[in-house]
Every structure is written in C-alpha cells, then in structure tokens.
Structure to design on (444 residues):
C-alpha cells in the first residue's frame, strides 16, 4: 500500500495542513477557555437555590447533552442569519463548540463540588474560615483532583469535535484533508495525514493528562 | 412568512420521521455489533497475552485519537481505492462499529480491572477454566462497573450517528440539512431535529444516571 502512497503531494499541501493545525489549535484553545467560563457560570446557576435560575441552567445542560454537536452547529450556522445575526463561520463554530463543551464542563464541576463531603465545609465554618478561605483550603484542593482528569478528557473531545467545523467550511485540519481529496483525488493521503496530525495533538494531551493524574495521586497519597 | 414556513415544515414532517427511523436503525445496528466486538476486545485486553493486549491498545488509541468525522471519511473514500465499494449505509455501520467498539473495549477493560484480584484467584483455585472464570466470576461482577458508562456510550453512539449524514445516509441531520435548503429557517428546522434527538437521547441519559446511582448503592450495602 505504501508504494502507492504519494508523499510528495503531502509535502506540497503541507502549508495547508499547518494552517489547518494552527486553526484547529487556536479555535480549540479559545473554545476551551470559553467553555470553562460558561461551564462555571452554568454550574453555579445549577447549584443555586433559586428554582428559576437552577432550572434555566438545567435546560441548557440537558438540551446540549441530548443533541448531537453537528445539529447544534447547523442550528447556529443556518439559524443565526435567519434571525438577523450575521457572524462568520469561524465565530459560529467557536460559539457552537464552547456552548457544547460548556454543558459538559458544568456537569464535571458540579460532580467535583458535590463529591466534597458536607462535613468538610461545615468543619471549615466551625473553625471560623471565611468563604474564600474555605474555597482555597478545603473545597478547591479536593475538588481539583476530581475535576481535572475529566476536564482534560473533555478538552480532548473538544479538539476532536472541532473537526466538524470543516463541514461549515472553516479551514482546519479535516478541511485540509478534504481539499486534498477534492483537488487531487487522493483521499488516502489526505485523511491519513489529517489523522496523523490529530494523533499528535491527542498524544500530547494524553501525556499531559496522565502526568497530572500521577501528580494528583501522589499529592493525595502524601 | 414564518407561518408559511411552519406549514411547509408540517408538510415535510414525514421525512423527518423517516430520518428519525434511519438514525435509530443506524444507531441500534451498530450498537449491537459494537457491543459484541467491544466486549470481546475488552476481555482480550485484560488477558495475559501481551502481543494481543498491545495490538488492541494501539487500535483503541488510534480510534480515540482521531475525530469520528475523519474515520468516516477514511472508510468511505479510501476503501474504494482498494476496490471495496460500499453504500453509505453499510459504510456508516462499519464506521460506527469500529468507533463504538474501541470505546466499549475501554469500558469493559476498566470494569474487569475493577473486580478484586481475590475473586479471580478464588475462581482459579476452585478449578474453573479460563472461560468459566470470565463467564461466571469476572463478568457478572464487572457488569456493575460497566453498565452505567455503557449506556452513556450508547447515547454518544446515537449522537455520533449524526456525523454519518455527511456521507449521504438519510438520517435526521441529513433530512434537516436538506430541508433547510428549501425552508431557510435554520432555527426552526434544526430545532425540530434537536427535539427529535432529545426524545431519543434524554431517556437514555436518565437511564445511565439511574443505573449509576443504583449500582453504587448496591456496592455500599455489601
């Protein structure tokens, strides 16, 4: 199979791939940051005692989690112009990605907060720690161990999901593969190269996530 | 104008039901094949055969490290280069099976890992064969850990089935995409698509949550 594999074409299109890699990278990064902010807000709202606020957040989280990202992407891509909001494909993509990931982040953070035994917080109150101090010394150190691994997991998912943006003609890694396929009829070269680039990102994130997990277990043990 | 679109949408509603049916068919068929393959791979992954474990590990990482969209493109566009021509439907089933089995393999392997070592040792010392150990001792206990994430994985399968719409499978998302070309009200069309996905996925998500609670309660009552 390798004898048919045309490496020269890949070199020829390498700049497309690098542009794509860069685009995938920065769009994922921006979406992850936005998702963290959104997720935190949604989580705080979800845990609020006000039913209306809590339910609003629940509707957001559940409707995102029960529908595919592609549908959400099309919803914004075709839907926003029809209500008079005109933003470009990249903005639409980042919006859909962060809204999608935000719901998952909210659930992860909520699980992290709920995993802390009530007694710990009560003990903190009893010893006279302020809210900030309780957050700093009791809640966060324990929650981070629970929250960080799944958060990194959802970051990996987000990077992979960003491939869907190629379907609304954003130039990123998968799009680069599509271009090679449609211009040169070389799907094998095109998509294997795309896959290779994703695997590089994936292994990088995986190594980082394994490393943090080791660190966290170490810290918990000592 | 909106009213006109709504009446036209009602006219094409049977198409949406067909799309829903297709989504369910694709998800359900690949759910069965992926479960069978995933369990086999998961059991092999926790066996003592080193090369086999490595091989499955590589397979799982390759699948988990690349976006599903790229996998779909790879299967649909590259197999014809080797003379294998597939209709969109079987190609979709194959892609979903490959992707789903890799994820289910990890879930099963983790579940088997979670069974205490003493159980296997007890099974060995009572003279059970390897197959009997797995069949009567390991798997029944592992199922408690496996079941909740497995149902979660089924939700992901249903949602990921939206991606096979790009190779022309007439599923819900594809129907929505075709409809939006005629009825330019993206929010309306994809809102409807989203509601239909929601109707399938939300009960499954609730089931996963309930299983998770029930399984963990049982564990404590032991």
């Amino acid at each position: 199979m390798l004898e048919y594999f045309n490496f020269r074409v890949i070199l020829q299109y390498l700049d497309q791939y690098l542009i794509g890699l860069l685009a995938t990278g920065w769009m994922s990064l921006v979406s992850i940051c936005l998702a963290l902010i959104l997720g935190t807000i949604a989580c705080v709202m979800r845990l609020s005692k006000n039913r209306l606020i809590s339910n609003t957040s629940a509707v957001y989280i559940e409707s995102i989690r029960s529908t595919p990202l592609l549908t959400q992407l099309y919803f914004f891509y075709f839907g926003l112009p029809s209500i008079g909001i005109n933003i470009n494909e990249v903005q639409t993509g980042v919006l859909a990605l962060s809204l999608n990931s935000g719901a998952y982040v909210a659930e992860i953070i909520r699980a992290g907060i709920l995993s802390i035994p009530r007694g710990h917080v009560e003990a903190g109150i009893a010893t006279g720690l302020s809210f900030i101090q309780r957050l700093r010394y009791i809640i966060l150190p324990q929650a981070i161990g629970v929250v960080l691994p799944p958060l990194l997991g959802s970051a990996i998912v987000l990077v992979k999901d960003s491939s869907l943006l190629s379907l609304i003609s954003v130039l990123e890694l998968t799009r680069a593969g599509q271009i090679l396929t449609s211009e040169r009829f070389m799907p094998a070269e095109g998509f294997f190269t795309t896959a290779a680039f994703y695997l590089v990102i994936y292994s990088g994130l995986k190594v980082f996530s394994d490393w943090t997990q080791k660190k966290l277990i170490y810290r918990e043990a000592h | 104008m909106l009213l006109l679109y709504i009446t036209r949408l009602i006219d094409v509603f049977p198409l949406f039901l067909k799309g829903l049916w297709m989504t369910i068919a694709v998800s359900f068929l690949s759910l069965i094949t992926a479960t069978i393959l995933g369990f086999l791979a998961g059991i092999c992954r926790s066996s003592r055969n080193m090369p086999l474990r490595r091989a499955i590990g590589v397979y799982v990482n390759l699948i988990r490290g690349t976006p599903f969209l790229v996998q779909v493109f790879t299967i649909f566009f590259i197999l014809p280069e080797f003379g294998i021509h597939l209709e969109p439907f079987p190609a979709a089933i194959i892609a979903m099976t490959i992707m789903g089995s890799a994820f289910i393999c990890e879930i099963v392997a983790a579940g088997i890992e979670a069974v205490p070592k003493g159980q296997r040792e007890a099974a060995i010392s009572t003279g059970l064969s390897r197959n009997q150990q797995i069949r009567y001792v390991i798997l029944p206990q592992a199922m408690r850990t496996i079941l909740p994430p497995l149902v979660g994985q089924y939700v992901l399968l249903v949602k990921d089935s939206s991606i096979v719409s790009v190779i022309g499978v007439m599923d819900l998302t594809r129907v929505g995409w075709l409809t939006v070309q005629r009825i330019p009200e993206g929010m309306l069309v994809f809102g409807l698509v989203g509601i239909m996905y929601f109707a399938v996925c939300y009960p499954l998500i609730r089931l996963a949550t309930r299983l998770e609670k029930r399984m963990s309660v049982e564990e404590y009552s032991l």
About this structure: DSSP finds nine helices and no strands in chain A. The CA atoms of residues 78 and 168 of chain A lie 10 Å apart. The interface with chain B takes residues 62-63, 65-72, 74-83, 160-164, 166-167, 174, 177-178, 181, 187-188, 191-192, 194-195, 198-199, 202-203, 206 of chain A (CB under 8 Å). The mean pLDDT of chain A is 88.
